Structures
1.
Amino acid sequence: MAPDHTPTPPLVFTPRPSAPPPPSTVGVMGWLRANLFSSVPNTILTFLGAYILYVFLEAIISWALINAVWEAPNRRACLDAVGRSGACWPGVIAWLPNLIYGLYPKDQVWRIDLGALILVLWALPLFLPRVKSKIAIGLTAVLVYPFLVSYLFLGGEKGWIWMVLVAGSLATFFWVWLTAISEMRTGLPFLALLVRTLAGPDPIPERARLVRQLAWAALFVTALVIVSRWQLVEVPTRLWGGLFLTMVISGIGITFSLPAGVMLALGRRSSMPLIRGFCVAFIELFRSVPLITILFMFNTMLPLFLPVGVEVDRLLRAIVAVCLFAAAYMAEIVRGGLQAIPKGQYEAAAAMGLGYWQSTTLIILPQALKIMIPAIVGNFIGLFKDTTLVSIIGLFDMLSMARAVGEDTRWLGLFIEPFFFITMIYFVFCFAMSQYSMNLERRLGGGQRR
Amino acid sequence: MTTPAIELVGVSKWYGSFQALKEINLSISEGERVVVCGPSGSGKSTMIRCVNQLERHQRGDIRIHGRAFGGGARDDEAIRRETGMVFQSFNLFPHMTVLENCTFALTWVKQMPEEEAKRIALSHLERVRIPEQALKYPLQLSGGQQQRVAIARALCMQPRIMLFDEPTSALDPEMIKEVLDVMVELANTGMTMVVVTHEMGFARQVADRVVFMDQGEVVEQAPPEDFFANPRYDRTRMFLSQIL
């Protein structure tokens, strides 16, 4: 028989399906074995660590909860009951309003609560999924809310400028919620909805603009009527204190430092020598000096440079100092982020005809800020804790209030408990910030992780 | 004689004291396809990046359709918009979807309504044969797909000239062809193209002219058949013997 000369057909390659991983590497048992009991030294360390943790927690819990005294007229009574083996909480409870509000008059404290509530309400639409105007709402929360709330906290006589600002701020607050509600119901922003109902689905632009202007005027007049009826007693800033003061200083510092830091970082990378020189000088000056020194300088030296009779509020001086300091640090963080963006991104943007500001705000910053989230939030947390330093220049932040507890004649010497308590408060706030930052990273990273 | 699409007259460029371009003279007419090749460090990338002023030259003139660069930032940006560029490392914007990468400049630079921008973007994504990836993020795509998106993105701005800076050098061998195919199709539509590449097959197939550069100078230029068959300079012969 003649040999077959047709070429042999190619072999067909079919990839095998993946097999399941070996059972000892998955599940709870697999995890325990891999992480806690992988070898003899590791097992010993695991038990040692567990023992230390137990001793530590047991001591804290029995001091803070089990042996603790919850009701007593003064510290003597506490000591008579349990000695030093348990915490004496009544002192902290009695001082709780001061730890939170400082020396703010008791009958005016509702104003602080209301201000905090308005902030929560203002920011709430940002977390509702169906609200679309999030950028506008976020911007107003940062730029407009402060006017309303600073009047609420400060009170006192209001001139007509103040009145207009506060009323405008309140009108914006109405707008935020009207927009949020109408977007959740109909998918349209409030003003667009109003234009459609009043002027028809396809109105002439002039008419649409008129409707918008009238709507704003109506909101403003309503707000003005409300504001003009308020009579708030003036509460000078030297009475502000406690957690409230900490929040005011760090809140302003945080909201100011990010945009200022971005501008400084961009300035430092600018090709214009004057701008670059100023930014470098500013950043290096403020980064090379401890915050405490800056606070002192602003507190004691600023008045020397100002004309006689011009008095800058002590709190304001502290806030300005904190803001400038935080901005300098933020600038270096942002610069790090900007440097991490490959040069190709700038080139691609330029090649498509984008100018400097467009490519910076739309291409570079969104990417840079996203990779800088951990560092930025870390800086915010640091700033929040650094505000304790203002106690040095005579402001009664939470730390000073905690110290004051032990100087009260009824609770003389009670230091550990109030410090333990404010430690917990600081921890709750800072931990919440760090968790939020991780959440933010996960959400923004979706689909584009390298 | 019509105005050339691209004209370089005595263009020189220095990095510090190192001269990267030495009085380059080059004229490319409308609809012409030019392949630029040469060893690394020969100045070919610098040259193509000077054409849209990603790098600024220090002496000489560069004219695009008769308009010279250097008349103020606004004019320069307008002239630059006549060109589109494709990079070696794609340079897609990782924080935007493929579609947003394409519509982005249309809505922000040309201020086009979003619907129209989307329509144009999709038509170009279709042209490079990946409309189905429009809603993915760039880093979810393969290198070849990313480079095709980059081509579509550049085409969206309706440039009259396309510049390619080593478009296939960062690709796995299996993906080079899909990108080259798109470029060949583009060449067949009559687009003016300047391509820096080592893909000599592509040069043979579509180029009207091959330009060989070394040490910041144009050594020789010729239609591909002459260029590959009888290079005149020894330097060219050596280069060709090493890459072919």
2.
Amino acid sequence: MAVSDVYLAAEQHAVTHEAGGMVLGNAWLLIALPLAGAALLLLGGRRTNGWGHLLATALPIASFGWAVAALVQMLGMDPAERSLSVPVYTWFSAGGFTAEANLLLDPLSISFVLLITGVGSLIHVYSIGYMSHDDNRRRFFAYLNLFVAAMLVLVLADNYALMFLGWEGVGLASYLLIGFWQHKPSAAVAAKKAFLVNRVGDMGLLIAIMLMFSAFGTVAYSGVLGSADRAGEGLMAAIGLLLLLGACGKSAQLPLQSWLLDAMEGPTPVSALIHAATMVTAGVYLIVRSGPVFEAAPAAQLTVAVIGAATLLAGAVIGCAKDDIKKALAGSTMSQIGYMTLAAGLGPVGYAAAIAHLITHGFFKAGLFLGAGSVMHGMNDEVDMRRYGGLRKAMPITFATFGLGYLAIIGFPLLSGWWTKEGIIEAAFATGGTAGAVLGGATLLGAGLTAFYMTRVMIMTFFGQKRWDPGVHPHESPVSMTAPMVVLAAGSVFLGAALVFGYRFAHFLEPAVGAPEEHHAFSMAHLLTSWTSLAALGLMVAGVATAWFLYGRAPVPRTAPAGNLVTVAARNELYGNAINEGLFMRPGQALTKALTAFDTRVVDGLVNGIGRSVRDGSTGLRTTQTGFARTYALTMLFGAVIVVATLAVRI
Amino acid sequence: MTAATSPVSAAVLAAPTITDTPPDIDYWLLAPMLVVFAAGVVAVLFEAFVPRARRRATQLTLALAALASAFVLTVLQVGSLPEGEAGTTVAFGSVAVDRVGLFLQGTILVLAFVSLLLIAENRRGESAFAAQAAAVPGSEEERGHVLAGSQHTEVYPLVLFAVLGMQLFPVSNDFLTMFIALEVMSLPLYLLCGLARRRRLFSQEAAVKYFLLGAFSSAFFLFGIALVYGYAGAVNFADVAAAVEAGGSPMFDGGGEPLLLIGIALVGVGLLFKVGAVPFHNWKPDVYQGAPTPITALMASCTLVAAFGALLRVFYTAFGGSVEAWRPMLWTVAILTMVLAAVVAVTQRDIKRLLAYSSVVHAGFVLTAVVAASPEGLAGAMFYLAAYGFTTIGAFAVVTLVRTHETGPEAGELAQWAGLGRTSPMLAGALALFLLAFAGIPLTSGFIGKFAVFEAAMAAGATPLVVVGVLSSAVTAYFYVRIIVLMFFSEPAESAPRVLPAGLLTGSAIAAGVVATVVLGVFPTPVLDHLVPQPGEERSEPAVATADGFTR
């Protein structure tokens, strides 16, 4: 296997230059701008109520502008020189130890920066309208800015430690924003759950970083990834699996998926930005960034793909059964990230496909969520799709933009989702062997399921009879909300072609993530007529037809029918919470009790004992401080004797 | 004219020759000290001739101007040092002018400037100093002076003379000059310690104790000098170092080592007393508590810098050849200092005593860097001293503001500080920052300082010392954090103290402490890079602490 050969190519590109020039040299501003916004709004207090949200919206836009300028400069460089190090801050260096923070600007990180600041800016604009009646709007925007800054730290860090800082930062922002309406107990509980489940993943990531440090003496990407293929496979597998655990927590992959559906308690713009477009994809970023680790440990790599496949199906099944529009979309997010994880587990051949799908997904899923938010805005915050119906006339713009996002996600030919999902399906089958067949089969099955549940959402919301609650008068949302939806819808339509046509994006990413072994030239005819493409198309049509048959032809009851075994399981999120409770929570509680007992008896006893002896010693020694100059003089004399004695031993 | 290259200085000291020509002294190199000295003399004249009403303002202006211009001159001298050399000597090799010395002098001047702001603080005609020191405490005469608003503006010339001694102490290049500097520094301080406005008997007791013990330690120091002179036949550090290399004066025929070793020990006793290392530390709590708090701030910052400067110079240059002999001694003292002082501090109930013990522990930490006997150790010690100086002045400045009642004395009892974080969040926040810096929490200057000294000690193979140091840090962190907990998480005490508003002067001192503590903690690289030579890196300007940091 030419694993090392693949990376030989990448290693030639991995030489990182120091960034020069006004735009690239000051890339830290990308992070500093939204961070300053968060600080200003949080510290400024009520004084910033009037204009805070406008400032908070302007800053990510400014970051986006800066990122675009950086991209333009980067495109002007030789592809091999597009890996740039931006020195930010040297804390101190003493002896051989240096503590510093540098940023890494390369094709992979700049893609994420553009996605985060671009979609982030749109969602800031949307939030101006969505949160206009909220008393705590300033705080909301401060948290959003904090999130953008932390997410940028995550993707721009040039080492795992700084990346972990951003990783925890987005976790914090996510916690704060899920629980933003903390007066609702469900929101507070959901925030706590997200935080706790993420801790499990974070612990994995943390241990992985510690292992790296002990094995390589560094946590810099360049140091760890550069020597990954020289370390033992066992160690690499351990690090890889622990990284995967971290990724599973952040990206809601099995078995740490349970928090994402509850996280929908947060305001909808948060669901769109954090729990659909950006933060939840951080796990995919981590795996792609750590590519060489997984290259060196095929077992870990296969685990990644398998987890991705399992989550892709589980998410889709959950999405099929949920009546809450946001939870249905959240199941879909799980499923789509499963696609990306699967692709990331295929090695260099899948990296570009994973990232491309991640970016187009960022657009169409954010668009779908914003559409859902717009619907809720018009329906007095109703989320049950069984109380919707026939909304296409009342909310034409929302219908149109949501519809384009819908077509994109189900993989309607030539729309964004189709381009990038085809890439993943093709890459999965290209793996060959049983693994390829199973993974590829999962991606195809997932495509059919996606078409089914998304059509279901579409029909229940926008078509059929009106099943509205009395007193609800749906209306179209203000332009500050619809404008971002229109932009995202445009992305849902065109972005995929722009990225995939001619494999432009894959070539752009190559210096950062490595090139696949064999390049085959881009062929439009092949894309349209290959058997995988046709099979995906067929399954999509079948999915749409089934949904139409079940929900379009027959009236939708206002209360959910009992349903069969599978439906009930899917409604209960495949019993993920019950499994967690039985497998982790209860044994965990028992373990905690045991540890507490150990802590109070043994550890505390020991610590208190030491503390007590220090205190007793202190009380004893205090008596030497008599206050008499003669005693002091005697002590000094005694000390002089000691000093003379320690020197005189040499005589 | 370096002493090493010119035989003149040795000859002069050995046998003075009488000539008609005046000695050739480069006064420019002495200018920073001359400015402070001249200002002190002029200040004495001011006491005689300036009307009482305008005396304080005049004296303060003069003192601040003198310290500021001396600092500027010190900085200018760095540029005039010969490139590629550590420095030079003046006045027949008795005073060294090198980068280490200039850094320490500059530090002392800045810290003295900040302390002077505290010393000058005056509220409704009431300063920190006694109205009339000569009056018997509690007497009618004293009350009369208090009512008349008498003030001791003599404080300012005394401070200037003390600063002069501190400037000279770390740059003295022979034992006699060093002894003179020691006394010039100490005598005004003895006096200043006895001038507290409140609890005057307590203050006077502290002054007398300080004086008695100081005299006692000076005797050790002098006796040590005599023994070293007997061994080396010289008092100049370069000559002593040469004699140590050569195995002593020819007349001993190689058998004079006991003289040298006991000499090192006794000189060490004198210097370790000034530093306040265990077991020569007993004076510190009593004196720090009894002295007027601004003077305590001056002593805790500037005296410590000066004393460590002298200690480093003596042990690195004069006794540099017998590192192996004195290293075990400093090991012992450092361990005793770090352990005992930290343990005793745990049960202290008075903030000033606590800070005094904390100062002793910090002296122990700096000693670990002295033990390293390397450029890194030198640089670490210098950074630590500068960082600690600012933090400790700030902490004592906070102490001056917390009073038992509006016109009462300082509320020293820690129990009274409970809940201060709720009533005066800014002040308590500043003190919390200083305490965290003392404890060595990252992103404060204290962390970088500790890291630098421990790193140097580790590199020099003193790992056990570092282990003791870290454990001692853990103990000290306990009582620092306990104060923070007391201030922020306890209900205010019944007899809640009255917090005076920080005026311009005290406020500036606290602000200087906060800024230095944060800047040196978050962005220490410019200073550290300047101090430590980077391995394998061509530098345009020589680092302060090169292998040959001291001129000889």
